[in-house]
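Workshop exercise sheet. Pairs work together: one partner reads the sequence aloud, the other fills in the structure field after running the prediction. Swap roles for the next sheet.
Pair: D.N. / O.F.
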Amino acid sequence: MSTTQPLPLDGVTVVAVEQAVAAPFATRQLADLGARVIKIERPDGGDFARGYDTAAHGLASHFVWCDRGKESVAIDLKDPRGLDLVRRLVADADVFVQNLAQGAAARLGLDAATLCATHPRLVAVDISGYGAGGPYAHKRAYDMLVQCEAGLVSVTGTPEQPVKAGVPAADIAAAMYAFSGVLAALLRRAATGRGGPVEISMLDSLAEWMGHPLHHGMHGGTAPARTGLAHAVIAPYDAYRTADGEQLLLSVQNDREWRRLAEQVLERPGLADDPDFATNTARTANRGRTDAVVGDALAGLTGKEALARLDAAGIACARLNTVADVAAHPQLAARDRWREVESPVGPLRALLPPITLPGGAQTPMGAVPALGEHTGATLRALGMTDEQTAALRRDGVISDSALSGGPDQS
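Structure field:
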């Protein structure tokens, strides 16, 4: 008898009217845990993230990342017949997620409040840029704009130049709160029998992630300074170049670690008790000199030699890896974190999701769908006849996948 636990969301159906990253990344987490995710896309091009680039062997890298494991159903919501099809799908769903422009879902009757009033067991999620009310409610809210509004850009970069995060931090923050909000609402439904609305804004989400700078600034009087790779209040905590050109980041968290660094890595034991360096307060006040003594020592070692010394001394350290380095990271390989997922252009490498459930069923890692790949099968499951489906296709209300062999003929 098998003791394998089922996937936590096995049997849960999610319908998503989604685009870009915030909602798609949230629903991909649900798919990873076993939910069936039906992604509603526009017939004329689908989710606009499909067109961001062609880096993944002809597919968009954002789409490959956020949309594997879903069923793509291409329906025109502006046509009453298409909107009726989506409403029928929602009637049988456990979760609905949307991140349309503010007000668009309400005009279609697909906002969380409207849907939950009709379907009390439904968990319905509205993801927006700035929330439903307030003076910013209807402002466009792309990721970098929200990074600016939330102040993330102001604390990221060098003293001379603020920079945005290299990943869509506002989108990811909203996605993860939407994901956890769905899980919480499903737990509440299990206890009460009722689902309910979940509201997520990108600004709220990223402002929460700004907790340390906010509390530092609100209560301490000044926001943390931009320090590049250095730490605002700890030294040494920065990247240093080795003799062979590698950059290593190291972090000394307390004065005991500084003593070990001085004695075992820098080979200058006198620095351990030097009043200009013996305490973190002193090292931070003398940051330039601290960085110079560390940098000079590492510049005389190869990257391999420096890492060996740092590890032996118990000093936290890391290589400053490139994206290519991460793709070949020995730790990810040793822990067997890579899989292949199918796509319209063939197998693509993808990482297993971070949530690991030992003893459970394997993460599905489903295929990246072609636009409208599942339209025909989904509508047949709703009871649509081939003639009805053909009429909708002819009128442009639905479309089937062009990448998977043209219109669905089965």
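Discussion prompt: Residues 95 and 304 are 50 Å apart (CA to CA). What would you look at next?
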